[in-house]
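Aggregate trends can hide what the representation actually does to any particular protein. In the encoding step, the backbone of a single protein was reduced to a row of integers, each denoting a local shape. The record that follows shows the chain in one-letter code together with its fold in token form.

***
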Amino acid sequence: MASYTDIKLFINGDWRDGVEGQKLPIIDPATEEEIGQLSCATKPDLDIALDAAQRGFETWREVSAFDRYRLMRKAAQLLRERRKDLAWLMTKEQGKPLAQAELEIAAGADVVEWFAEEARRLYGKVIPSRHTSITQMSIKLPVGPVAAFTPWNFPVNQVVRKLSAALASGCSIIVKGPEETPASPAGLIQAFVDAGVPDGVIGLVYGDPAQISEYLIPHPIIRKISFTGSTPVGKHLASLAGQHMKRATMELGGHAPVLVFDDADIEKTIRAMVPSKIRNAGQVCISPTRFLVQEKTSDKFIEDYTAAMKKVTVGNGLEEVTEMGPLANDRRIPAIEEMIVDAQSRGASLQTGGERIGNKGYFFEPTVMSDVPTDAMVMNQEPFGPIAIINRFKTEDEAVKEANRLPYGLAAYAFTNSAEKIQRLGKNIESGMLAINHVGLGLPEVPFGGIQDSGYGTEGGSDAVEAYLETRLVTAFN
């Protein structure tokens, strides 16, 4: 069984404390107890990491695509072998049920393997020439060292996509990991180290997010950034990257609508949507939030969905019976409470939940609210917690209009047995991802990303590596 220890920085192939000795406590969200200390990076550490990343890039870009593939496959296998220990660490620091943590590790291994295969398929082109003595080729080359910024809600999932795409493309990478959940990304990177990644190819730092991002992004060594997090922070970092002509991938916040039509299978819909809502205690960027239910079935849906949410077992993620663990930090509780009070003051009905559970640990009741007006805070800001909003609609056009009302466009869901509706929704819902009649998002082989205020670029599918590559023309007269 794993045990939780202090977490250090990983720079130039070495686990080390920060030069200036700064540290932060690591807190178990289920007990509020300190379980370890985290070393923090400051400017001297970042300078060392940047120099190592440049040298690591010069080494890694010369490694053949086939050898990159073999090394990444080995790292994926190590992840699978260590999944139980890594899952225990993740649950201890993040709170999610152990089974969900194990699934995240297993899914992470799948992501690594997917990008390992993509490393062997970074094709260029031979372009037909206008002259028989001229050869024209477009070639794909790695863009250079990458800076990646990742959140605490999926400590492995959010790192592994950026890390795998960078390595598959031949780039080195500095990961700025999450301070709340540092052990699981450290375990992920250790798997790559043990698989044989050369020194300097991967760096892992923690510390003040603003200071680190504002130092790394403008730095001339960094050639590309990837960020997952809130829309306000993402806009700031994208602006900073733009000032320095750095390419960027932005996976930002969402406020996912769920359109439930009269012809949908209500039982099947609830079976899919309750686990999806309580997953990670609702701290998921693609979490279903605004349930829009057609009037004919709305009363039954509210009753049945509420009954299912009441049955959810909330507790310590290390306990086998737990279906939903605590929120990840103490900041989320007052934020969620404020949204609930605001919605009720505007006439919303609280069907179940709405309260903190106990006074030890960051536990919160699975919450259902109905008939919430559109000017309520929770209808306009991502709740990032276990809150489901259920509102009614009459016509398809009305539902689509509400689904598209917000500037977010990350994920959306719909349930209907009408083939005609499915075709229309696919065209009319403004979202980077739309799942109809199931929850089918986040697989390695499909695109993962949003539009509008939810960001740009994809971190899944065959297009994901393109952001880490430059296309260059080579034309020669023979």
